[in-house]
Amino acid sequence: MEKIIFKKIFPEIILTLLVGVIVFVSSFLEPDSQGFFCNDRSLDRQLKQSTVSKYFLCLFYFVIPNTVIWYDYYICSYKSMITTCNQTIYFWLGSGLAHITVNIGKYCTGRLRPNFFQACKPNIKCLSKDQFIDEYICTNSDVSVAIESKKSFPSAHACLAFYSAIYTIGLVHKRKNNALLVILQFILFLSAWYTGLTRISDNMHHSTDVIAGSMIGVLFATVMMYNLKFFDESISSIST
For site-directed labelling of 201, which of 32, 48, 159, 177 has its Cα 20 to 30 A away? Predict the structure, then answer.
């Protein structure tokens, strides 16, 4: 019985690892340079440090869902090992697919961030305020910051935050509902909402970038939970 079930999961493990490789490679894609108007005030915002750093984001939003998954198995004995493994695999698979979607968006659009002028420091001479610039070179000595200034759409922070929050909310929802779990679900949603808002207040993204990133995260989390439902049904049929 266990051999049959693990044979069903093994291809998904390989696929998830392959997706991880694609995520890694696509993260290094440099978008095409988009032009701008010299008087575009939406690109002249102050360059700030991120309130929610990339490292904290990954730690927080990767640890919480996996902790919930394995807590149910080790502490609550709420589900089987095979279900626990599959929920973990689907979490990583979904996050990888969502990340690839975001990277493709950044590469194809090359939308400039609100702090573009300070982050890129383009070598331009504007003859008039409404002059359109389509050829320039970033002079910022911090090359990584200059490159990131062209990757505004969509927001990866918002995508990961909402993906992890919705996925975890779905896992919690499978358990017997009570007021405490409802509060926990609200806190998870609120943390994702706060992360998205900080991307705007930190001048890292336009509001539409955050909206798009959030929608991508919610979509993939919903799709993964939908697929988990069918997996649980197939496991139940095998067990019987």
Answer: 32
**CA distances from residue 58 to 54, 67, 68, 164 in whole angstroms, order as listed:** 6, 14, 16, 10
Residues 6+ apart with CB under 8 A from 100: 19, 22, 23, 26
Q: How far is CA 74 from the centre of its chain?
A: 28
- For residue 154 the two structure tokens come to 């969509």
Are 161 and 189 in contact by the 8 Å Cβ rule? The answer is: no
45 in the Ramachandran plot: left (φ > 0), alpha (ψ -120 to 50) or beta? beta
Bridge partners of residue 36, in order along the sequence: 133
User: 87-137, pLDDT tens digit by residue?
Assistant: 999 999 999 999 999 999 999 999 999 999 999 999 988 888 889 999 999
Alpha carbon distances (Å) from 127 to 37, 113, 239: 11, 23, 74
Parent domain of 168: 2-12+52-113+146-239
Say if 71 falls within a structural domain.
yes
pLDDT band at 85 (very low <50, low <70, confident <90, very high): confident
CA–CA dist 218, 101 (Å, integer)? 13
The pTM of the full predicted model, rounded to 2 decimals, is 0.90
- Please give the Cα distance from 156 to 168 (Å, whole number): 18
pLDDT of res. 238: 46
In a domain, 18, yes or no: no
Phi-psi region of 110 (alpha: psi -120 to 50; beta: other; left: phi over 0): left
* Structural domain count, the chain: 1
- Give yes or no for residue 236 having a pLDDT over 50: no
Q: Is residue 35 part of a domain?
A: no
Task: Classify residue 198: in a domain, yes or no.
Answer: yes
